[in-house]
Task: structure prediction
Amino acid sequence: MRPIAIRVSCDEIAVKSSQAASVGLIVNELVTNAFKYAFPEGRPGVVEVEVRKRNEKVVITVRDDGIGCPTEAKSGLGTRLINLMVAQMQGGMTRAPMAQGCEVKVVVVIES
Result:
């Protein structure tokens, strides 16, 4: 068992089922990436997930207190999947190092 805690905070957001599935997949891939890369060799840590509604957009933020962001993101299947869904939802993704760890923020447009 890996000693990693997950903290989740989410607004109540009404979206079409197809968009809900995409948001869920994006969150899943971001959290999976944090588990895979932020905490090597059984290192303990915390992953924080926030999903917020801002006007006609959904803001997904995943932060970890792991080893930090690499200078270049890996371009594996998960990252390509995230990029594809973000593009389809007219959004964008940013990645930023923190004092300890990494923060990835995805903003997507929701259809009314």
